[in-house]
Write a structure and sequence with these properties.
Layout: H1 2-19, H2 22-36, H3 41-79, E1 84-87, H4 89-104, H5 110-127, H6 129-132, E2 136-138, H7 141-158, H8 164-185, H9 187-194, E3 200-201, H10 206-225, H11 249-268, H12 270-275, H13 285-324, E4 330-333, H14 344-367, E5 373-376, H15 378-396, H16 400-423, E6 430-431, H17 435-473, H18 480-483, H19 485-491
Parallel strand pairs: 1-5, 1-6, 2-4, 3-4
Protein name: Ascorbate-specific PTS system EIIC component
Membrane topology: Multi-pass membrane protein
Transmembrane segments: 18-36, 48-69, 111-129, 150-181, 250-273, 285-305, 403-423, 443-466
Length: 495
């Protein structure tokens, strides 16, 4: 018993100070990788510091975006007295914490045990990549906590009478597989987007990114076969005349956000903004709109600087870990890291069209008297749809950077409203709201709820088969794309 208590304290310390702090998690991965590569001590220290500081810079950009724009969107709920659920990972986590004891008589602390077991399963699956064909280790600890919380609620909804240990075992297997399989789906498309930067996505929309990227590519290839001109990517579009100002990412982002955020602020009105303490009494409403809208471009630039700072260190150092312990693997990191690659405008376009899709579905929920009204949270609104726009543009061209995020926005709100109402989370005010949790996890929940243990077995088989099918599609290049990207490009004629 004493040994278990010691191990529990060690895990709690690691989870709180490292796993849930991605900057330190990435820093220690770089540190370990360079040690395994037998770098000189000052190179090890330099790599650790650059990676950690770089991730802190990325986090500063991400947090700045979230803290600036989340209250504005949530303000719509208060301004119009809506009894609405917010789609946001942190609101979702808080909903689980508030309701898990009332609904199921379970402690939120169990989610940390679920996270531990699922994390171990993810690493083991990647360690035996020769058989599992899984290549990505999920390292985004703050996201893992949010997902463990929601996953815990969903399985308790399906099996409310299942014992404490069986619940943890079943959910650890499913969640660990989801992390490994989902991240693995993004390996190839991310390597191509970043020209071999050596990471995958470990976030909340991994299946969504893969589906929309592949769908964009499929539709574009089909159009080419019909004799249509090859679609241009956003970075290849050069606008004429006064429109040329939109060729500059900072200018285009500023103007588009001025229109989008400005419209929301006008709807909220200066009186509400002063009452909610967003604005100071006597402050100019026009200049408040300008300042708030232009901060988007500021925080996006900070985020991109952070990506450039830490990604090179992570890529180089992870080779040591890959060679020694996890052959052919890459780290799965925050989706925000992709915003430093591809077209600078694709993320902004994806965000805006995703917002259009989300607001369209919210209006439809109101028109059809949905039992759950949803307020769009900023994190799904931006990080899901910006990334989907980025990948869709890279695989299919600029029109898919608009179409795919719009479809995603519709699905995010509609799917979240359905699942959160069904499982009872809506009444606690929040649901995770990201793309996979509005599509993939509702599918998981349906299987488990209506097929019981047959559903669990079916789900595990489906997840295990996905990487096997990926491997069969490109046996020669499957592991080469992570181990020798230049060789992979040569093999596929993409030099």
């Amino acid at each position: 018993m004493a040994i278990l208590n010691i191990l529990s304290k060690i895990w709690d310390y690691f989870a709180t100070n490292i796993l849930q702090q991605p900057a330190f998690m990435i820093g220690f991965i770089v540190l370990l990788g360079y040690i395994l590569e037998k770098k000189k001590w000052y190179e090890v220290l330099s790599g650790f510091l650059k990676a950690t500081v770089g991730y802190f810079i990325l986090s500063a950009g991400s947090v700045g975006l979230i803290n600036t724009f989340r209250p504005i969107l949530v303000g719509l709920k208060d301004r119009f007295h809506l009894n609405a659920m917010v789609t946001d990972p942190y609101f979702g986590q808080n909903a689980v914490a508030a309701g898990i004891m009332k609904e199921f008589g379970r402690s939120f602390a169990d989610t940390m045990l679920l996270l531990l077991f699922a994390y171990i399963i993810n690493i083991v699956l990647v360690r035996f990549s020769k058989y599992t064909k899984l290549r990505a280790v999920f390292t985004t600890g703050n996201v893992q906590v949010q997902q463990a919380a929601t996953a815990f609620w969903l399985i308790l909804f399906c099996f409310p009478k299942l014992g404490h240990l069986p619940i943890l075992i079943v959910m650890s297997i499913i969640l660990g597989l989801y992390w490994a399989v989902g991240s693995n789906l993004t390996v190839d498309i991310t390597q191509e987007l970043t020209d071999g930067a050596g990471f995958a996505i470990a976030h909340q929309q991994m299946f969504g990114i893969f589906i929309f990227a592949k769908l964009s590519e499929f539709l574009e290839n089909r159009a080419k076969k019909k004799g249509k001109k090859e679609a241009r990517r956003l970075e290849d579009v050069k606008l004429p005349g006064f429109m040329s100002i939109f060729n500059d990412n900072m200018v285009s982002t500023s103007i588009l956000m001025l229109i989008f955020i400005g419209a929301i602020l006008v709807v909220l009105g200066p009186d509400y903004l002063v009452k909610a303490k967003f604005m100071q009494p006597g402050q100019s409403f026009i200049f408040y709109i300008l300042q708030t809208s232009l901060q988007f471009a500021v925080f996006l630039a900070i985020l991109q600087l952070g990506v450039r700072t830490f990604v090179n260190e992570l890529t180089e150092s992870f080779t040591g870990i890959s060679d020694k312990w996890l052959p052919g693997s890459v780290p799965g990191i925050d989706v925000a890291a992709t915003l430093g690659f591809g077209s600078p405008n694709a993320g902004t376009i994806g965000f805006l069209f995703g917002a259009l899709g989300q607001f369209t579905m919210i209006i439809l929920l109101l028109i059809f008297h949905s039992p759950t009204i949803v307020i769009a949270g900023f994190i799904p609104l931006f990080f899901d749809n910006a990334a989907i726009g980025l990948y869709s543009n890279n695989r299919g061209g600029f029109k898919y950077a608009m179409i795919m995020p719009f479809i995603s926005g519709l699905i995010q709100i509609g799917g979240s409203a359905l699942i959160a109402t069904w499982v009872g989370m809506a009444k606690y005010g929040g649901y995770i709201g990201m793309f996979d949790w509005a599509t993939v996890w509702p599918f998981f929940t349906v299987l488990m709820k209506f097929l019981g243990f047959v559903g669990i077995c079916s789900l595990i088989i489906i997840l295990v088969m996905i990487p096997q099918l990926q491997y069969r599609a490109d046996k020669k290049g499957y592991f080469m794309i992570t181990e020798d990207y230049e060789g992979w490009k040569k093999l596929h004629g993409k030099e």
